[in-house]
Inverse folding.
């Protein structure tokens, strides 16, 4: 376990000064500094990395956000923004001499305009709470990450989150119209707007997915869309993963954009079925879940076309949900795949590579071969329509050498993703977990461009430093720059 | 006419030095400096503003683009990038002591992958040429600005162009997967990618719509989408513009996303009909064109739903295209509205404000009242579904005072757009035409943020300087900053 707290004496003096400065501008309830209070903030969803922060702040208002940034700017204290802490790449991992700025208390739905189909919410509002508030108007917020019951819209903005429906409805960047942000200098910017396009540079898009590096979001205007009249899902079985992978490409090539197009291999379906009883075909080497939504006519027409394509692609069995309850049952297994992995394996390591869709079959075959090489099982459950893989490498950290083998396995998967023209992360972000792999993905000039924009917003590098973009020094130490094939030296990451 | 050429002697010496430096790195055919050769580059689609450039360069390759930027960087020469020159906001207006960098010769379709549904093209490729190349695969490139037969994809990227189908299929930013750009320092960056999402900051989105301020695009990867099996268009007549405007909002509120949703008022339909013979109802105060595309079932279902909504909203007559020929005829009038304006009026001034859709009726009523105030006619023909207005103010520049009245009329329209929560430009860009209005739209901190990003890419302000983002000095002189109501002092723009 990573535990990089500096010398205790040094921290205590510094901590006192920072806490005093924060208490001068904030109510006491907004500042936590005792270890017992800050412990819940020591990690996010990438729980293998932990670090107690010097201070946690919990602002109630935008004015308090400005005040916190003012204190940090004056005293040169780094800031780690934090949403609900469900992120999977360590983007909210604290810094020992830094402040965590949690948006948990900025949790009001400011207004919901059913006619304009927009909601204005504070960053701490949970993803699902927006759809719940919009439900009486038959509207909802489309992006639905697995963590949607817990994750916050501010975190979604930071990570550009997706979900099972983003193939048809887009990522966060396609569903957010406007953000209000506070810069490190205390300026308030309104980026984007409710119109089709906004003049000037598209800074809204830059903020979305910027992993807390550019400013603190204090308000988000999201698009709401009409809840489809109906939806049905096909469960199609395949005798091998290659046939299943090709079927995905065929659905898309037929001009169909399913509302969801997810794949689970046999390891995944057998892992999930005893736990969730979703009715999965556990004899199949792979199953595809293909959803159609829209009006009744559209859904019937699309289900018929998808069925024909899947049969033509070699599906060995096809089941179509006959009721909303059955549709939810089919999805329940997919949505519970991660918890199910926790039931059958002491530990798992979730990867997030993305590949061009047409290379799916090839990459799945490659991963299957790696199971033998590394002597570990890997459950593949993923957003097939987007080419966004989530291989779950199963291991037991208590068995000597297993974690190292899992790590090497993960490195091989990412190397394969990059080699076929893909990327090292689809929707989980870079955070601190994949920062070395960024040296593999990008050229020096491209990383320079990222840093130039980062510096434009945060010249003193106080906002979530050392996350998301590796310094050129780091890449030099890591010894890699834009090598788009071959094994990633992922095993050089700090041990835990 | 604007003609701000500096002292001839000064220009000649400087011109000789720059031309010599360019000829040292480029073939002679790539460098134009005689006035007779550079004359065709003196303006773009905003032809009222003209300026001969010092030199025009026409690179054949990316290496030559790098070489041109190198010369300009060394000698401190400003660069105005130029696509096909069809832009309507003066974004490609030359600078007297600057170089025009035309992408006209970078016009190869590098590759087209029908299976992955992408095309990789050079920036000088015409918008329509991409769809023509994709047609044998039943694919096309969706954004379709009016100028699509002539405009280039590089210009589309610079302006984030839309078109009549962008309500359903998005703007350029939603249809470009990757750009390859050369920075002022000569670095080549690949921004974006063919995967769902790319790690790091979303610099692709920043480049799209950046009006040539950040770098030179040398290659663009676009999404191709399946040509819909069929399409039909409804022409609905309304007795007044308010009823028509409300009908637009009702269609959207009913959860329908038409493939196109355009409105023309009576001035427009009467202007167009004698010229195009599109079969328009010239007795109606306004007509709406509502297109459905998709499979036959989808189209029939959507046409039926739209018809019901339009009838419910008070349409006085409804006609549905009965053949592809009739569909094209209905659209021909809309697509030829600008040329038709040129036939009935010596001059016209095209505005490009965008408003929240639900304010349409109110803004149209406001514009009608302004016709009386300013004593000029205004034809309204626009992307109603997007709330993107294109009022065509008709005037005769040869009649004393008419241009000034047209300008004041335009200013009032933009002021109304901003007052109802809209923006000063939808898809034509800011260029030099609307640069003062940017002071009205944005706060000082927001303009600062734009400039910080601009400087991150172009520290010496050589790329299309003085376009798109006003300096704070300019706003101070202009005397306005973020006044979101009241009359814009648009009449302070340079006279022509």
């Amino acid at each position: 376990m990573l535990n990089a707290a500096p010398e205790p004496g040094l921290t205590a003096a510094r901590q006192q000064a920072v806490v005093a400065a924060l208490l001068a501008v904030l109510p006491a309830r907004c500042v936590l500094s005792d270890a017992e209070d800050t412990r819940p903030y020591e990690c996010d969803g990438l729980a293998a990395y932990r670090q107690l922060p010097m201070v946690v702040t919990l602002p109630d208002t935008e004015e308090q956000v400005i005040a916190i940034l003012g204190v940090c700017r004056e005293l040169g204290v780094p800031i780690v923004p934090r949403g609900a802490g469900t992120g999977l790449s360590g983007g909210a991992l604290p810094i020992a001499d830094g402040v965590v700025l949690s948006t948990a208390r900025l949790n009001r739905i400011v207004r919901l305009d059913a006619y304009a189909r927009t909601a204005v919410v504070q960053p701490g509002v949970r993803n699902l709470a927006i759809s719940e508030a919009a439900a009486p108007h038959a509207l909802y917020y489309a992006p639905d990450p697995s963590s949607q019951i817990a994750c916050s819209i501010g975190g979604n903005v930071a990570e550009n989150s997706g979900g099972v429906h983003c193939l048809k409805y887009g990522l966060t960047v396609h569903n957010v119209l406007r953000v209000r942000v506070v810069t490190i200098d205390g300026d308030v910017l309104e980026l984007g707007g409710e119109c089709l396009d906004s003049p000037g540079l598209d800074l809204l898009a830059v903020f979305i997915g910027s992993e807390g590096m550019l400013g603190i979001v204090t308000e988000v205007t999201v698009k709401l869309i009409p809840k489809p009249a109906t939806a049905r899902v096909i469960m199609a079985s395949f005798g091998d993963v290659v046939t299943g992978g090709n079927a995905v490409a065929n659905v898309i090539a037929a001009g169909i954009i399913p509302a969801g197009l997810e794949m689970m291999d046999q390891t995944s379906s057998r892992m999930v079925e005893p736990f969730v009883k979703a009715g999965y075909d556990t004899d199949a080497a792979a199953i595809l879940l293909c959803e159609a939504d829209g009006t009744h006519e559209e859904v019937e027409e699309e289900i018929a076309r998808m069925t024909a394509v899947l049969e033509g692609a070699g599906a060995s069995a096809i089941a179509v949900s006959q009721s909303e309850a059955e549709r939810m049952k089919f999805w329940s297994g997919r949505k519970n795949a991660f918890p199910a992995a926790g039931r059958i394996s002491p530990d798992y390591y979730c990867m997030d590579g993305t590949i061009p869709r047409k290379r799916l079959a090839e990459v799945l075959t490659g991963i299957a071969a790696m199971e033998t090489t590394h002597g570990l099982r890997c459950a593949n459950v993923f957003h097939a329509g987007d080419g966004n893989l989530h291989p779950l490498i199963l291991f037991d950290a208590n068995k000597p050498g297993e974690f190292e083998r899992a790590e090497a396995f993960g490195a091989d998967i990412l190397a394969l993703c990059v080699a076929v023209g893909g990327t090292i992360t689809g929707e989980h972000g870079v955070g601190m977990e994949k920062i070395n792999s960024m040296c593999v993905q990008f050229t020096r000039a491209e990383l320079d461009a990222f840093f130039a924009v980062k510096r434009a917003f945060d010249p003193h590098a106080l906002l979530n430093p050392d996350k998301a973009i590796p310094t050129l020094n780091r890449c030099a130490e890591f010894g890699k720059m834009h090598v788009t094939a071959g094994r990633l030296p992922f095993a050089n990451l700090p041990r835990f």
Remarks:
- Residues 402-419 of chain B form the longest helix (18 residues).
